[in-house]
Design brief:
Elements (H helix, E strand, L loop, with lengths): L9 H13 L13 H10 L7 H13 L3 E3 L6 H7 L5 E3 L1
Helix pairs in contact: 2-3
Amino acid sequence: MYLLGQTHNPLDSQEALLAMLDRQLVLVVELRREDLPRLRALIRKYRDLPMDLADATLVRVAEREAVRQVFTLDKARLPNLQARAPETLTIIP
């Protein structure tokens, strides 16, 4: 919700996200202990870009859940994340 607070109308933005969660248009998934080796591998592999934990988590969870679309509000990181994401991964917005 932090990045939603940076939008033009933070309350409307937060309500829109909550509505998407309520309608199950957006899925929030947990990070699991068994994901840690893959996270470490992704961070090491892309250390020159760099890939942080948030980026690695998006990629890993998409792999694990066979998700083809991921949602992030961190537009500053989008170009770096897209450079590291599998070709079949679409980043929204």
